Amino acid sequence: MAFENILTEKDGGIAVITINRPTKLNALNRATIVELNEAFKAFDIDREVRTIIVTGMGEKAFVAGADIAEFADFNVEEGQKLAALGQELLFDLVQNLSTPVIAAVNGFALGGGLELAMAAHFRIASDNAKMGLPEVSLGVIPGYGGTQRLPQLVGKGRAMEMIMTAGMIGAEEAKAYGLVNHVVPQSELIDFCKGIASKIMKNSPVAISKAIKAINANYEDGVNGYNVEVTEFGNAFGTEDFKEGTTAFLQKRKAEFKGK
Ligand code: COA
């Protein structure tokens, strides 16, 4: 895949998407969002890919937000369209992807950057990472799901404080908040994420995609997550992976999942 604003690579079942606009601290302009949409979709249907890691180029930033220069003169309608389209093309797509997505937060994750990390299935931070939703300092509010996903992850009070103050928190504080799962030295970040991906890859991709769907159901309005769990649990019994997993266990051997 050839892109202008992102780099993609695939190795041994792990795909890495690197947002590559370091001179703009990897800010998300429209073109980058469209490319990310294409890359995530392509890796999701690639049967070789078992986990996707998303990160930012350089040592300074994961993503320093939506590209402020691009929307500075937008009107009300354009603002609404920007948020709606971005949520559809990237943030909802990532959250609902069948393939696990890990955000490797390698520096500033601000505004749309933190929103992208929060849309990922979980987050690992480098020790220099700084996270925040500074939109109210620009006279706007988070528009890529930040007002919804931040309270889900850190609780309402902390989300209120972070959003109202427009402040940044460091990696250790983010870990204490439950916003990131682990904090590692920057030089070890991608290998650490790949280590987790290797553990994920030992398990059934079909079961994992069903688990993602059931977990996400907990956060969908009007959807009973317990019912989704019952349905997906039942559906799993109809998969080849289930037959393989249970047979391998009973035969005391390692399961070879095909993802079917
Ligand atoms: N949109 C567009 N450009 C951005 C950007 C963004 N969100 N964040 C950084 N950049 C650009 C800067 O304009 C600058 O470009 P230039 O060299 O052409 O002037 C370049 O990236 C480097 O950023 P700079 O501000 O010089 O780096 P810094 O180390 O002084 O500060 C930050 C780093 C992250 C604190 C600062 O860039 C910042 O506050 N960015 C905006 C964060 C934000 O509000 N995001 C939410 C957007 S809704």
Give the tags.
single chain, 260 residues, alpha/beta, 2-enoyl-CoA Hydratase, Chain A, domain 1, 4-stranded mixed beta sheet, 11 helices, 10 strands
What does this protein structure show overall?
The protein is α/β, with parallel strands linked by helices and 260 residues long. The protein folds into 2 domains: 6-200, Alpha-Beta Complex (2-enoyl-CoA Hydratase, Chain A, domain 1); 205-250. 47% of the residues lie in helices and 16% in strands. The chain has 11 helices and 10 strands. A hairpin with a 2-residue loop joins strand 1 (6-11) and strand 2. Helix 1 (30-45) runs parallel beside helix 3, helix 5 packs across helix 6 (156-165) and helix 9 (205-217) runs antiparallel to helix 10. The longest helix is centred in the N-terminal third of the chain and has 20 residues, at 76-95. The structure holds coenzyme A (COA). Coenzyme A (COA) binds at residues 24-25, 27, 64-69, 108, 110-112, 134-135, 138. Coenzyme A binds next to helix 2 and strand 6.
